[in-house]
Structures are given as C-alpha cells and as structure tokens.
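Why this split exists: single-chain examples teach little about how molecules sit against one another. For that reason, every record in the complexes split bundles all components of an assembly together and asks for one structure covering all of them. Below is a record exactly as it appears in the raw files.
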Amino acid sequence: MLPEEIGEQLGAVEKTLVGVAEGAPRPLAAPVHEVLTSGGKRLRPLLMILSANMGEPDREALVSAAAAVEVLHTATLIHDDVVDRAESRRGRPTTVAAYGREVAVATGDYLFAESFARLADIGDPRIVRVFAEAARDLASGELEQFRASGDEVGIEEYLRHIRMKTAGLFKAACVAGGTLGGLSIRRIDALATYGQSLGVAFQMSDDVMDFVGEPGVMGKGAGSDLAEGTITLPIILAMQEGNAGLIRKVLRTPRPEKALLEAGIEAVLETRAIAGTEERARKEIETALMELELLPAGPERDVLHMIASEVVGRDA
Amino acid sequence: MLPEEIGEQLGAVEKTLVGVAEGAPRPLAAPVHEVLTSGGKRLRPLLMILSANMGEPDREALVSAAAAVEVLHTATLIHDDVVDRAESRRGRPTTVAAYGREVAVATGDYLFAESFARLADIGDPRIVRVFAEAARDLASGELEQFRASGDEVGIEEYLRHIRMKTAGLFKAACVAGGTLGGLSIRRIDALATYGQSLGVAFQMSDDVMDFVGEPGVMGKGAGSDLAEGTITLPIILAMQEGNAGLIRKVLRTPRPEKALLEAGIEAVLETRAIAGTEERARKEIETALMELELLPAGPERDVLHMIASEVVGRDA
C-alpha cells in the first residue's frame, strides 16, 4: 500500500464519521457531531488500516470497521468523562460539561450501539467479538481504576488497569485489521502483542504528560491525575522513592487547593519517577518493535514502526 | 414445544444470567449480580424463546441470545436510572442509588458489551444487527423523551418515543427469535408487528399504572412521571380535556411538593385519560393478536396470545 493510499483510506474513515454524525437523531446530532469531529488523532483506525493492508482486506469492510473503532473509542471517552466529571478534553468542553449528564450518557450509549451496528454489517462475527470483549474490559478497567482511587495501588495492578482501559482497544484494532486482511494466526498474534505493548506505552506516556505537559497544549491541567486521586505509574514510583506522605495527602484530598497540588507535583518531579516511567514505556516499545519483525516488510510495517517510535516523548 | 420445555429453556436462560454475574470482574460482581437476579419478568427472553420455537432453533444459540437480550435490557435500565436519577426499581434501590453514578455507568457499559459479546458468539451477524439497531433507537428514544420533558408533547411524538424506547426491544426479541428459528420473512414480519404492538401497549399500560398502581407493588411512587416532567399518554389526554394549567404547573415544577403532585394526579384521574389510554392499548393488542393469526397454530402461539391478552390491565 502506498502512503497516499493510507491517507485515502483514513479520509474515507473521516467521511464515514461525518456520516455517522449526520445520521444521528435530532437531539443527539450536535453532541455527536462535536465529539466525532473534535480532532482526534484517529490512531485506532490507522492501526487497523495498517494491520489489514499487510494482507488483502475488503476495502469497504475495512473503512467501516475502522470508523466503528473510533466511534466505540469516542463512546467510551464520553462515559469516562461522565464518571470522572471531566470539564475539558482536547481543549474543548466535554459532552457532560457542555450538555449535562443525561445527554452524555445517552450519546455514549447511542455511539456504542452505532459502533456495533456497523461492525455487525461487516458480516464477520469475529470482528464483533473482538470489540465486544475489548469494550467489556474497558468498562471493567475504568471502574477498577476508579474504585482504586486514593488507595495504594501496586505496579502490577496499575498495569492490569491500563491493559484493560487503554491497551485493549489498540490490540483489538490491530487484531481486527489482521483478521480483515486475512493474515495468518501467527501474524495476528504478533499484531496483538504489538498493539497491546503500544497501548501500554501510550498510557504511560500520557501519565507522564499529566506532570510535564503544557496545560494549554494538552487540554488538561498538569497534575490532574494527582488531583483526582488516580494512581498512575509516575505517582507509584514517586511514592516509593520520595515524600509519600505528602503525595498521599494530595491524592486523598478531594479537589485539593492549588498550593497543595503544586507541592504534590513538585514531590513527584523531584524523584526519578518520570524517568522511571519513561524507561518502562521504552521497554514496552522495544517489545512492540520486536513483534513487528515477525510481520512482512513493507510500508505498513514501516509506519507501525514509526508510530511506536513516536509514542515515547510524544507531544500533544 | 411443550409448556415444560418453555420452562426448561427459561431456566437455562436464568442459569446463564447467573453465570454472567459470576463471570463479572470483582468490582462489578455485586451490582451485576443484584440487577440480574432482582426478579425481572424475563419477558423479552420469553418472547424470543416462543418466537424461535415456531421453527427449529439451535437450542444453545437460542438460550445464549435470550440471555443476551435480558442483559442488554438490564444495561439500558441501569443507564435510564442514571439519567432519571431514579431511587428504586422493582422495589429495590437502583444501581445508581446503591453504588453511585460511577459504578452505574460502568456496570451498564459492561453489561452492554457482555450482551454483544454473547450475540457475536452465536455467529449470526443478523442477530447482532437487530439488537444493535434496537439499542441505538433505545438511546435516542430515552434522550428524546428526556429533552421533551416539560414541553408540550403530542400523541404522535409520544408514540415515536415509546416505539424507540420500549417497543423496539420487544420487536427485536421476536425478530431475533424468528430468525434463529429459521422462519420465513413473512412470519418474521408478523412477529415484528406483534412485538412492536405488544411493546407499545405494555408501555401505555405502564404509564397508566403510574397513576393507578399501588406504590409498594410497583416499586415506584404514583405520579412519578408527572413529578419528573415525563409526558405520557394519560397526561397528554388529561391536558386536552381537563385542567391543563394545573397539570402543566406540576410538570414544570422540579420536585413538586406532595400536595401539588396529588392535585396533579387528581386532575388526571378526574378526566377520561386513563380510560382513553387503556382504550388505545387495547387497540394495539388487537393489532398484535391479528398478526398472530399469520403464524402457525400451536402452544407457542397460544402463549404469545396469552401474554398479549394479559398486558392490558396487568398488575405488577
């Protein structure tokens, strides 16, 4: 596949997403349109398109499935924001902030159903199953992480949460792509490991950026995980090494004041927690890149390589 | 199919639902178990089982699909209760009341995904599509009804809402059953109309019971639609005929006091609104029963007939 063909297929996904927004019933039209065209990176559709084109996918099925994974991802973001009471995402008000809880819950449900309607239309139950299982893990992971807020969370538990919450959909996108492309089980397995490791590294990198990213660029304030009591790897590592008492105090204070939050961020930054998290993310990326060696050389593999290389140290 | 076989298949659905609860991840185990074993009537699984057994379904696929429709139905109830801030259902605290919004949103999402994972396992994309489309309509219907709260709603709009919100899943259960049974398109169409008319009558009957039912038996207080600003057919008819000003006042008052609410209920009951709603429900049931004539005679058809006959004037 030529690079311009990748772009062409992503363009078709974008058109399909606009079609989903235009097809939404009246009271949902505005929130659906906003969330589907708010500048997501379309990373999951891209992973699916690249994975599929290592084989010989049916183009129409692929574009529809790639749009469906973005719709599913968007549905989960909307519900996550309801759960987390998040005010903004990608520098814009969240659906729950702009329209209230009622609209946000219903919009998420609608997009969830829309995603499975599209996946069903492809006519391959394996694709539906891959995403239904990923969605199930996603809901469990989100809740497990929420329930663990403020508690002591170990590295293993953190890894378990982010595998379910973030990496599962990356993996599902790669597996569904490989399936649609008709790849061998062996190659689909390699794509699965690539997707999972990439997703874990992606989440770790996101967790780092919550401490070092620019609030304006990130669309979220620095230290928001600390403020919300969400235990991430930088926080776990910082508590092992630094002022655990202070960090614990910030985690357990609902809506901590600016001075307290900043002291907490400082307590994390004065340890090697950020470097340690980046180191672990790099190891995940090494695993991802090793798996790529099992896949056929070509432009798809090159782009998958590039995506993985850019995750660590990525900016907005 | 003998009556004891219907019972046997419903028993297998019940076991499957317990299995779903036992398979839920730890933080979801308690809420999932409670909602799946809280004494639902299993009407949608029953409709599917009866429809399917007019043909020759694969028993395992049927039981799994029948459990999936109940799981999907339960997921939508949980999210409806989040949207409506409902305190109790079937005489028990709702998931949102017992566990909070975070757990309720995630539990609904988990059950939604679980339902589609089961449907995918059956291996027939038509079944997934039927339920994905019903779920999409359900989310739209719930939101349209919510957005219309407090507004003037006409009968046509009310019918549109309840077709999407309630009747769609009845219809989907019948269509999926007919499909699994391998029935002809003509017979599946008859089941679709039966299911839709039954669902509309069921909702009308529910709306009547909100005025005349016993609060203890219903698990919800009398007049709750009026109190929440939800416009139902009894309310529409009462406003056409009776003290529209008073009823409108109750509808537009958030959390109306007991005296005001009781005056509103009285204003509805002193009109022919309840009788008029029951009349319309009976007409829907007549349509449903006429469609049954197009289906093969036998115990399945007899039970479908009985279910429809019992909807009007049903108790808890």
